[in-house]
Every structure is written in structure tokens, then in C-alpha cells.
# Entry
Amino acid sequence: MERAEAGVSGGSRRALRPEEPGSLPCFHEQMVPGGSSSSRVIAHLDLDCFYAQVEMISNPELKGKPLGVQQKYLVVTCNYEARKLGVKKLMSVRDAKEKCPQLVLVNGEDLTRYREMSYKVTELLEEFSPVVERLGFDENFVDLTEMVEKRLQQLQSDELSALTVSGHVYNNQSVNLHDVGHIRLLVGSQVAAEMREAMYNQLGLTGCAGVASNKLLAKLVSGIFKPNQQTVLLPESSQDLIHSLNHVKEMPGIGYKTAKRLEALGISSVRDLQTFPSKALEKELGLSVAQRLQKLSFGEDHSPVTPSGPPQSFSEEDSLKKCSSEVEVKSKIEELLASLLNRVSQDGRKPHTMRLIIRRYSSGKHGSRESRQCPIPSHIIQRLGTGSYNAMTPMVDMLMKLFRNMVNVKMPFHLTLLSVCFCNLKASSTAKKGTIDYYLTPSLSTTSCSGKRSSKMKATHMEDF
DNA sequence: TGGGGTTAT
DNA sequence: ATAACCC
# Structure
């Protein structure tokens, strides 16, 4: 069946826009053939040793001293004072103390303050442009394309020659003010500088930025000048950038497993990957992975900056030396759950699924995890966020059932990790009858319905357990 | 190796 | 439910 191409769906052609007096009309053109602008301006922002910065803000006496943030027996990150003295990320506490006896350590196993600061950063960036994608707690991508276009349209023609780049230009390449591509990236570098300024002025945080035409290149270029600096990549230097990588494993998107498989094919440099026969690569990795990776090797990355929005899951985990009895498991689960329940009530949304994750000791594989999940019964969901009822007890019981489903407790067991995750988050929907919410909530409006709009129906209608 | 997160299969 | 990726 052919779809009718009537005027309806194609109707919203484009709103007529009055020409701005004094604007630069030539910048409208020059987009890619086909009309849809495929050239983007992307920023990658990367906080400097984020956890250490948060700790130094919490306790200013730590400033100026070599500082490490410790989780279990690892120094997961450290400030630049410590790095100068030889401390590296993910170094064991023993090695770090050996290298640097004056090292000050703070415990960073509770991520609460880091998480909160992380979202403040993302929200600050969202004020510049709503299209912000988080990557971990300390990195964000921002699509600056629209902002840059707007600034260019506002630009008076006599201001063009005065435009300057903010921060470094990769390879020290010279900017060509007659090249629209250069101009757009240059304006992007100015926006990135403003974002870093705002992060420092409003949150007290320093970080790096990279500006380029896609996420891959923006991320790679942000790391070129390292603490608290920024770099823009002009298209002519993109091949130099990707070939500056010493190994395919350094390419974001190529992880441990894929790097091993590529190595087995004799691929170790980015150029090896570029020149490797596509068909053979597809045979090894499958069409979609092979095509994506080979594009990455040329510096091509069409993946959009996907707005992260609120988190899709909440989890708490604890690694353990040894956990081998049901009693220990239960008390760990209670601990993890208590924190999660606090977090979830702060968020406002309700999780509809819960999951228990374990790692068994020496189960052959490296860090292999097993999990079981189940829906959260609606009567328990309702009681989340209210202090009036203890959701803890029924949830612990459910999690213990999931546990016994995974582990035969009649046999000896040895766990090295326990984790609880809440996911499948839905809007709180305190949906009262007669409200819009009520009719938009399928589970409510499709079941019982009396069409009666009683103001007395308040909050008691779902207590049918 | 920690204590998180995401997406694809 | 797992496996891969990211920090």
C-alpha cells in the first residue's frame, strides 16, 4: 500500500522568518546537499578529577594537599597535586601510599554528593541548550548547533573579522574566517568557554571542553589540553586527531572485548581498522557493529546527542570480601534498600521493577554478574515516598526470594557483590479521579470506572490489597 | 579494580 | 537475563 502524499503531513513546511537586518545571508546556504543540515557543532565537557573536586569543596582544608578518593582498597581518583607525586587513577591504596606517603585519603564509597553535584552540572548546561547527554557523572555532551546558528544570524557583518576562537585550536591550525565551517566551530568554542565559566562561577568546578563536528571527535579533542582548558577541532585536522591514538582500544566505543577480537584479526592501530576489508570485519563482528566501528575509525559518528533527562534506574551496590550466609545477605540488602528508598522518594517518580544482582566468588569469569528481577506490586509502589508505612519489609522479603531463586542456599556460597536496582520508573501519578492524570493512566482508567467525580475520592482509591 | 550508569541482543 | 559499552 502506498501512503497518500496529501497536503496534511507535509503541511508544516516552514514558518516564514523575517530577514534580520544586517545579518549575514550567505551563512544560510552552504549546508550540505539535500537540504537537511548535517554539519553539527558538538561540545564535550569533562570535569577535572570530579570526586576530588567535590571533596575539596566540602572541605576546603584539603585544597593544596595531595588528595585521593578511596573506594574499598582503590584510589579511584585524585587531584593534580597527587598526580604530580605519581598517584594514578584506580591505583591500589598500598601502591599510592608507597608512591606518596603524604597522600590524604577520603572515603568516596557514598556517591550521594557526587551524584547531586553531577546533576547540578547537567542542569546548568541544559540552560544553554536542552540537548545535553550525560556520560557517567563527570562528562556531558551538548549539541550547540542551534545556539551557534542563532548567534551567527545575530552577527553584524562588521563583527565577522573580529571573531576569535576561545581556547586552543587542535594542531595549532589557523582559522579561516571565510570558511563557514570554521566560523561555526569558533562560535562553538565561545559558547563552551561560557559554559565552563558558568560552571566555575556558579558551582566552583573546573573542567575541560572539546568542540568538534560530532561526539567522537569532541570527546577525543577535549582531552588534548588537560586540566581546565579547552580545544576546538577544525575538520582539516580530524585525521591527525584519530591517528594520534596509539591503539584502537583508545577509541570510545571500542571496549575490552572488541579490542581483543580486533587484535585477533591483526588490527591494532586505527589505520589497521580503516583499511581492514569491510566484509571480513562484518563476518567477525556482525554488520551493525562492524559498520559503526569502521566509521568511528575515520572519525565519523552520526549518533545524535540524546538528552538524558532524569535517570532510568537507581541502584546501590556494595562489594564484599565474603558474604556466605542468608543472614548476611539480608542485612546487606536492608542497608542497600534503605538508601534506595530515600533516593526514590526524593525523585518523585515510582519504580515498577526491582532487581537483585550478585557476583559469585571466582566463578571463572572476570566480574561476571547474575541478576533476577520482578515487578513491584502496586500496593507497595503506592507506599513509596510516604513515611506512613514501611515498604522496607515486604521489599526485603521479595528480594530474598529473588536471591533464593539465584542461589541454592542449601549449598555453600560465596558472594563478592550485592546490588539492588530500581528501574522502570514511571511518573508518580497520584491520579485522582476526575483529573487529566486519571484518564491518561491506562492501569486506572481501563479498570473500574464510575464516571463519577467525587471530591471525596482523594487518596484512598487504590488500597485494595 | 569501585560504584555507579546506558543500550543492544 | 546477559553482555557489551561508558565513566
User: Anything to note?
Assistant: The radius of gyration of chain A is 27 Å.
